Amino acid sequence: MIILASLKTTLGDYRFDNVFMNASGVHCETAAELDEVAASPAGTLVTKTGTLQPRSGNPEPRFAVLELGTINSMGLPNQGVDYYLAYAEQFQAQHPEQPIFLSVAGMQPSDFPVLAQKIQDSGFTGLTEFNLSCPNVPGKPQIAYDLATTAEILTAIFTAFKKPAGVKLPPYFDLAQFDQVAAILNRYPLTFINSINSRGNGLWIDPETDTTTIRPKGGFGGIGGQYAKPVALANVRAFRQRLRADIGIIGTGGVTTGRDAYELILCGANLVSLGSVLATEGVGAFSRLTTELKAEMAKKGYSRVDEFRGQLNTL
Ligand code: RRO
């Protein structure tokens, strides 16, 4: 029997033809890169995280491909929120049926309500991802590990912001942390979370030279790719079990095969974003993974993703 699997999915009131999208930071800093993602089979796209002012980021080398993934300490290089907002508004005018994501972050907590107001006042009708988890700006913590500041920022954002919004979270590693973070998130009108950002502050050493692989922060950088997958699965699963049912999840972390994407959906993901694999393979990864995920679904007898989303078996 031939099963024609569909990868159509939803997040909040938004519909997408394919579960795959890029992860913010990968293939999305310029309009040309964003256009390439848009022209691929990806169901949607997200911009590079934009800050109030453009930034050149950290000194190079700041990205390296490792045995089973990547390390990066980009340091938020971006063209500024106005650039990405203009791109998003133009994109939606040209593709009114294809909602996209704008990613933004403050360099300090007080930037977040300013960013929120700017987007609120714009004509943007897509989804906004507030990035609370960049691990790579020297001297700045990953906000979402500080729960009091996270709650303050969310309160400030949602005072100004009435459009669909979500947060990009760092990986958590303790069940008590999942309880605490979910309890905070459940107090706000979030449409989604994105879990996980890279595993912050890993270190990779070149065995020939005994030297770090990237320059910023003494070589410390965010780890992505296969190293991240079990952590991403656990974070998506743990949040799906704890968040309000109306808060959707973008699953991110270590997807290199269709089976990996299938597993993130089993844990509860509505959309699946590609980081390291997109950085190493280019936009061709979207067609390969689309084919592989459909094949995996056909093998299991599923024709739609909502037939197995969240249906992980446990012993
Ligand atoms: O630009 C970066 O260094 C960066 C960001 Br904003 C992020 O959210 N995650 C990451 O791995 N790198």
From TrEMBL:
Primary subcellular site in the record, as a coarse category:
cytoplasm
Q: What is its EC number?
A: 1.3.98.1
What subcellular compartments does it reside in? Cytoplasm
Keyword check for Secreted: no
Subunit structure, briefly?
A: Homodimer.
Can you tell me which family this protein belongs to?
A: Belongs to the dihydroorotate dehydrogenase family. Type 1 subfamily.
Q: What is this protein called?
A: dihydroorotate oxidase (fumarate)
**What is the species listed in this Swiss-Prot or TrEMBL entry?**
Lacticaseibacillus camelliae DSM 22697 = JCM 13995
